[in-house]
Design a protein that fits this description.
elongated, about 55% helix, about 100 residues
Length: about 100
């Protein structure tokens, strides 16, 4: 029988990336400031974790403007949705396996 721990995704080990993915899974898109407020991290810290998720093709970035202000939003990709659901399933199996 496979150990569910083998199905955990290292990219989602960070609480910040876990928070980002949770936010983009339940919202069509989330902007940088909303994520920053939700997760309570600095700009630089959030940006580096967003970059990791983007490089792994788990989120897509959409840069635009609202008036003269830049507005960057993030959304989950199909690959990101699949990977995150697999990660959560593995976590659930691990939890249910502990008696």
């Amino acid at each position: 029988m496979n150990n569910p721990i083998e199905h955990l995704n290292k990219v989602f080990d960070s609480r910040i990336r876990l928070g980002i993915m949770s936010a983009v899974m339940v919202n069509a898109e989330v902007n940088f400031n909303e994520l920053k407020e939700l997760i309570q991290v600095t700009d630089g810290n959030l940006a580096s974790h967003l970059k990791t998720l983007e490089e792994n093709n788990y989120i897509k970035v959409n840069k635009g403007f609202i008036g003269r202000k830049t507005n960057t939003t993030y959304a989950v990709t199909k690959a990101g949705e699949k990977a995150f659901k697999s990660h959560l399933e593995a976590l659930e199996k691990m939890i249910k396996g502990i008696h």
